Amino acid sequence: MSKKNGRINISKGFFQRKVTSQPLARIQAVNIEEPILYRFFGFSKVSTFTASDVKRSEEDDEKILTIFPLIRKDILFENLISLIDWVPKRSLPLNKPKPSGRYYFIRNAFFIWSTVFIFAVYFWHFSGLLILPVLFLAIWNADFYGRQTAWLVDRKKDIVIIGSSRFFAKEYYLLPFKAVQSVQVKQSIWMKNKNRAHLIMNIRKGNGSFKVQLRYIQKERR
């Protein structure tokens, strides 16, 4: 891996080498992912989301570029900033929503999967009980999602950091202000009564868009 002339160059393969090159100017976000096994051993995976260009060449065609497939968490940011200068120099503590929105994630998972469980038992009788572990797993995952919901606005670097999760994998999105195409606040009638809202930030990803969400946060904290 190298950084040269405003581009990140990554070589892959052993017998047949493939070099992928991406312009730094087109990076829209950095994604840091920590699956269960990665966290157990103290590792992370780092990828970038890149906007496509009308005149892009074949080498620029990857909208998600993995720059560190496996890297120790304690040296992640010092290596990342050597490639992308707008990321923080170290891991920063994120703000958690207060009060927590975990209840709403758990409630949604319970209603959806308990309905599936009831229908499974009704139609398949005792075989439908096999859905019960999935119900508990879904509730556990929903609680984990709620615990990981967090954010930080770093005005020194002009970026926003969003904490999220995907099936027990921790995820962090680092978004430069200039890359955010639009911001939406969604609030149903029920959420309005609870003073909760979903904050959605849209960024470019390839030729399309990608949504980074903060769900069930207090509306005043958006």
From TrEMBL:
Q: Which residues are listed as membrane-spanning?
A: 104-124
Which UniProt keywords are given for this protein, alphabetically ordered? Answer: Membrane, Transmembrane, Transmembrane helix
Segments forming a coiled coil: none
Record-annotated YdbS-like PH domain positions: 5-54, 162-220
Q: This chain belongs to which protein, by name?
A: YdbS-like PH domain-containing protein
Origin species: Oenococcus alcoholitolerans
Q: What is the lineage of its organism?
A: Bacteria, Bacillati, Bacillota, Bacilli, Lactobacillales
